[in-house]
Amino acid sequence: MAVVCVWSLLLLLFFGVLSNGISNNVNSSRPAIVNIGAVFTFDSTIGKASYVAIKQAVDDVNSNFSVLHGTKLHIEMRNSNCSGFHGIIGAVQFMEADTVAVIGPQSSEVANAMTIVANELQVPLLSFGATDPTLSSLQFPFLVRTTQSDLYQMTAVANIVQHYNWKQVIAIHIDDDYGRNGVAALNDALAARRCKISYKVGIPPGPGVSRGDIMDILVKLAVMDSRIVVLHVYPALGFTVFSVAQHLGMMTAGYVWIATDWLSSVLDSSQLSSEKMDLMQGVLVLRQHTPDSERKRTFISRWNNLTEGSVGLNSYALCAYDSVWLVAHAIDSFLNQGGIISFSSNSKLSSGGGNLHLEAMSIFDGGKHLLRNILQSDLIGLTGRIKFNTDRSLFHPAYDVINVIGTGFRHIGYWSNYSGLSTLPPETFYSNPANFSNGTQQLHSVIWPGNTATKPRGWVFPNYGKLLRIGVPDRVGYREFVSKSRGTNTFKGFCIDVFTAAVDLLPYAVPYEFISYGDSKQNPSYTGLVNEVATGFFDGAVGDIAIVTNRTKIVDFTQPFAASGLVVVAPFKKLNTGAWAFLRPFSPQLWGVTAAFFLVVGVVVWTLEHRINDEFRGPPKTQLITILWFSLSTLFFSHRENTVSSLGRLVLILWLFVVLIINSSYTASLTSILTVQQMYSPIDGIETLKKLQEPIGYQVGSFAYHYLVEIGIHESLLKPLGTPEQYSAQLELGPKNGGVAAVVDERPYIDLFLSSRCKFRVIGQEFTKAGWGFAFPRDSPLAVDLSTAILTLSENGDLQRIYDKWLSRSTCSLETAEIDSDRLHLQSFWGLFLICGIACFIALFIYFLQIMQRFRHSTPADLVSDGQANSHSKRIKILLSIIDEKEDPTKRQSKRRKTEMPVPEDNNASSELRSNAEPEIQRLDDIF
């Protein structure tokens, strides 16, 4: 703010001295001459070419009657010498000639000063070289940037960094508005891509910087880990940096130098010596993209004739040329719309006395109108389409990406805010939807510093003898994964071997030392270990560290080297088949429905067959027995009754098919129950644990505690355990005896635990999916390289061999259990034998009751006449004879006729009835 006030004061001072009452110029007719100005540095790389381009543009406009229709442009050019002070003087001098617009300034530093004049006097400034991103339209409404903002150039640099998977860059910049604000834009663009500026250094502007100062800066950079350097300075200083960098060996293989468009302007403007070109071999350079066109080629041909090769044509000169044409078209529209070029005094600038004569300062009355016409322009120039967005930036900003090789350079691609990086010109994509996907981002091959085509890694370990501090958990249990040798500072285990094997695959040396984390009394908190990495206390962490969401927010993990996930382990018991195992294949509901359908089908078939089938006729008792016998005998396909009706046969065939399926299913299920070992646990998984509200064990230091709390299990139910022995002891005790109902832990630990403890089993499935990885600070390139090495270990089989070395254990032998389960035992069938035995006993009991009843009704006369001994033997003989004798069927029929049929009144009716009943009686006799 103080600087602005000083420049304002100088502005008022010079206007008071140089202005002597500029009178109003009101002319209703189109003026013959319109005055414009230009302010830039004549002897700079950009200025030399811009001087010729602006003069040629004015001549071309004046010689083209269709532009201003007879009105001529008159231009006055002032040399700003890259000084804001000289820029203000030049702007004040223009006002003596009633200037309506100013081409320039070239420098961002000068633009910040001159915009004060432009805003106050309402004179549009068309800057073809001020790229400072902070020159916003809100603060400087009369500044129109006719070149690209460094906001887009730095986005292009960030895209290149992202394209090559680099994470950190070093920024060297000139310490003024141009340099500081450009690097600030670069930092924002990198941050949006999860990259960053690891170190930035500003070089003071002006001639006071010596080669020794540059060397001091680069020596500091040489010992840093990043090898990506972005150079955003002025040409003279840039060549000095390259010279010192080559002297220090910083232009060799492994380094990447990215120069902004200051270097492309030099390469386009002049033929550099071989010594200078040697300094920049392999450097990537950005240049404002200007589409190829016939008009551009014609102008380049004219340019060579104009300059005779003394000054090359750069992109800024093309922008300066187009700026003149832009002003000319805007003035023509202004005049066509009835605008009048006039100036008026500003009453606010009245000095109230003195020698400053501030009241004589004038304002361009049509300044806002002319500015509006400039911003609404849409024309084709040498740089392509000239159109402004709502933020006053040029339409479709784009850059060429070039690679310095030998005595020249070659294009390796393009960048635009529409299509990103590509090997085709940006204008070929404008007819298609914008696409920034990673698959479409590409560049041609690059020759990097050191004359190598291999993409640099972009970083190295700092060369100051410091070892990486790698934190390792000092475990108490499950020491197969990682353990510290007592009395030493050495570590071993599965995780340690994986890390060392991965480091050995890296194409560079990694100096490191393992630092123990924990008190050796219980497993340490792995979340605490990760936090130590995030705070910088450790440079990394190696161990069985689970990759979970909260940890990934503060550190970067490598590719997982072991799969993991939380599981539930609990005791189980063998489920014996038992005496009633034959009932288990069907549920009670299925048994009930099956039995009901047997009866239903029997009734349905009887109903369909009763009227037409003699086998389904007879007394009610007989028909009831027929129904039951028929329906139940279909279970074994042993029914003897024939079906006559078509409906009965249809029902029967469908029912027999159903019975076939039921029999097959029953047989298969019962076979499985009897021959396969059945396990049982009251816990089904994590949901069961939440409902049981019983103690649950977890491993000390594991993320399982926080997970269980988050899913709603109360902290009081969680019991910390540290070793496999504690797991086993607590599970055997059970919740009723002070133990735990189950243990929740990660799969690798549980697999090792169950390898020698066959009393427990994993219940359900894994309910989280995770993995183990090595932790490093955010954006650490070592995490990326180690991930590649871990993938290599997995592909070549080394990872599996390391796993087998540490974690392959003899599992519980199930052969004996399987043989035992294949052999059937009596206990699985005694229920069936019991049912059969009871049925046999009841049948025999009824039978002997019938025999004894016949024995009691036998004639006792024969028994009395004999003696007592003979009487007992006679009884036995009679009983045996009753048992052995064959019953006369006619007696059975006669007996049934007496009990089932009433006695007829006449013999003829009795004979007829008997003849009708005999077949039915005979059928019953056959059955019984």
UniProtKB/TrEMBL annotation:
Residue span(s) of domain Ionotropic glutamate receptor C-terminal: 469-809
Region (Disordered): 887-928
Membrane-spanning residues: 561-583, 590-608, 620-638, 650-674, 829-849
Keyword Signal on entry: yes
Location in the cell: Membrane
Biased composition (Basic and acidic residues): 915-928
CDD domains named among the record's database cross-references: GluR_Plant, PBP1_GABAb_receptor_plant
Main localisation: membrane
A molecular-function term among this protein's GO annotations: G protein-coupled receptor activity
Disulfide bonds: 758-812
Pfam families: ANF_receptor, Lig_chan, Lig_chan-Glu_bd
Keywords: Disulfide bond, Glycoprotein, Ion channel, Ion transport, Ligand-gated ion channel, Membrane, Receptor, Signal, Transmembrane, Transmembrane helix, Transport
Topological relation to the membrane, as annotated: Multi-pass membrane protein
Family statement: Belongs to the glutamate-gated ion channel (TC 1.A.10.1) family.
Function field: Glutamate-gated receptor that probably acts as non-selective cation channel.
Cross-referenced PANTHER family: IONOTROPIC GLUTAMATE RECEPTOR (PTHR18966)
Protein name: Glutamate receptor
